[in-house]
Amino acid sequence: MPVDTAPMPTASVAISVKQARNLALCGQGFEQDDNRPVTKRRIMKAIRKTNMLQVDSVNVLTRAHYMPVFSRLGAYDPAMLDDIVWGKSRERKLFEYWGHEASMIPVEDYPLYRWRMEDAKQGLGTWGRIARIQREKPELIQGILDHIERNGPVGSSDLEAKGASSSQWWGWSETKTAMEYLFWSGQVMAQKRRSSFERIYDLPHRIIGDAAHDPAPIRIEAQSDLICKGIAAMGIATEADLRKYFRLPTADVKECLIKLVEEGRLLCADVEGWKQAGYLCPHVNPRARAKPTCLMVPFDPVMWERDRVERIFDFNYRIEIYVPAEKRQYGYYVLPFMLNGEFVARVDLKSERKKGVLLVQSAHLEDGCNQGDVAGPLMTELRRLASFLGLENGVEIAGDNAFSRYLGSVPTL
């Protein structure tokens, strides 16, 4: 049975603030400065480091899942990532499912999520309306499955159109909810996304082939494996960090941690300044070094949990997409800028596709940082990003605060 508390460490590895930061960045794949061409193999290696790419519909800059690869490897052809996730069955290396949030996940990890799919079949661990549709409309769910079996890939809007002249689908909202239930429970999978970002669904074996039938480990073993993958990706983590990375149930994580520490698969750590106990992989190198310079989107795995970002990097960050415009402090889609492993600035960015420019709507320097040291490297990264996004007219600075004006004075190369 699940227990109420994780084990209190009897002997802990002492980790300094600096070591914790380096471990976190190395775990996320920032430890190497590699100028080789970016291939599909290197893209997959980067994704396996983070375990997944978060998917989000916001497209003010670019779709969020393209950016973590760019932050770690530099410019690459986005079509390669598209092939990895949406290509032919033999070429697919990623599938879409609920990881941290909606995520693109390596196909080899598919069995580790089967427990979540089985929970969802029973209406557990899902949103309330999805649990209700499973109980109240089994005929609708079966009808959609039968339709996909007979006719192949389909989107919810296609079934909505069909229902406009037929009572078969019971209206758009219930149809979409039923499709979300089928997706959450693993009975259908996203075959691709339309330009509107709507998912097109098909049966799993038609998308990932034999991998759909791979045997799944029992629940505690699958979750333990996910926790070990999570600690490798985070470098150093608290119980809450590990739980939030994969959205694991609290009681299950506590049980798994006891098991993993007893088995020696995790070590306890006493991290300088942390109130909570830490955990790390027994094979990690505490002297690892990572000093990346890059821009990160709000949906980069490094940025997922704001309290962790503040604890490790002493950087207070909140996404303001859902904040009314007049109440935003920094802007709508703000990317932190990391210079040599430290967050030194943040920029509110927008792709002005018709003008072909990367628009810097505002730029803010972090306290204690020198604008002369930051502006040049930041402009270099902004130009690299503009080129990656195909914005051929470069960077335009629109902000009117002091650092924005200074940034605008940096000569264009």
Automatic annotation (TrEMBL):
Pfam families: AlkZ-like. It comes from the Bacteria. InterPro entries: AlkZ-like. This is Winged helix-turn-helix domain-containing protein.
